[in-house]
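Lab notebook, bench 4. The sequencing result for the construct came back, and we need a structural model before the next group meeting so we can plan mutations. Quick request posted to the team channel:

Model the 3D structure of this chain.
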Amino acid sequence: MKKLLLFAVFLTSGFLHAQDQGQIIRSIYFGGGSWYIDEYQVEELYHFIDSLPGSMSYSISIHSHTDNIGGVAFNQMLSEYRSKAALRVLLEKGYSRDAIEIKDFGLHNPVFDNSTYEGRLKNRRVDIIFWPQVL
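Done. Here's the predicted structure in token form:
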């Protein structure tokens, strides 16, 4: 069911918003070989961030992923570019670099099946994970 929900959200807005074990996850999806986050996606991410409870503080993890098209080195580089693009957006929003952890998975650790077109689409993403902190 979670995979079906993810695909439905992907088709409608390009973002995933999920909540699991206290963390809040927002995903940004990319075209093949791309790390570009367009203005619409930035606006949507800012709107999402503005909707988070203001009474809470968050630590943030950026997990970047790719599909399996291309070599290991290329996908690792692409993963790093995607996480840097997401980091820039968060820094522009006012988050401190010290509060953000980055993990670049490249083509390793896919959540979806890279042998299908749909799976590859869903693996081309950055997950931004907000971890509520006790003040």
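The two ends are 34 Å apart (CA to CA).
Will bring this to the meeting.
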